[in-house]
Specification:
By secondary structure, the protein is mainly α. It contains six helices and no strands. It has helices spanning 2-28, 30-37, 44-48, 50-74, 77-80, 82-99. The protein starts with a helix and ends with a helix.
């Protein structure tokens, strides 16, 4: 009976290895194609908007400063991580407003 347990573990690991290889090999070629075709984050429209790039840099610098300031002053590191979640949602809203 122990042989079947060992064989099933080996078969499971082979399936996981094959699946992981397929996922990595397929997704690894997706990003370079976007760069070459200038799609998604690499589109000309996204690269040419210097004002939004400056605003986003300043936004994230301010978020880092708020996070560190709040965390050091209150010593409430267990709850201060929520700042990142809120900042990410607000940044998504800011980006959606900017695109339109």
């Amino acid at each position: 009976m122990e042989e079947f347990g060992a064989i099933s573990v080996v078969v499971t690991l082979i399936i996981v290895a094959f699946s992981t290889y397929n996922i990595i090999s397929k997704s690894g070629s997706y990003e370079p194609c976007n760069v070459l075709l200038q799609q998604g984050d690499y589109s000309v429209k996204n690269k040419s908007n210097k004002t939004f790039q400056t605003i986003s840099k300043v936004y994230w610098y301010v978020i880092v400063a708020v996070y560190l300031g709040y965390s050091f002053i209150t010593n409430n590191w267990a709850m201060s991580w929520i700042i990142w979640s809120v900042a990410g949602v607000l940044f998504g809203a800011l980006k959606a407003i900017e695109v339109e």
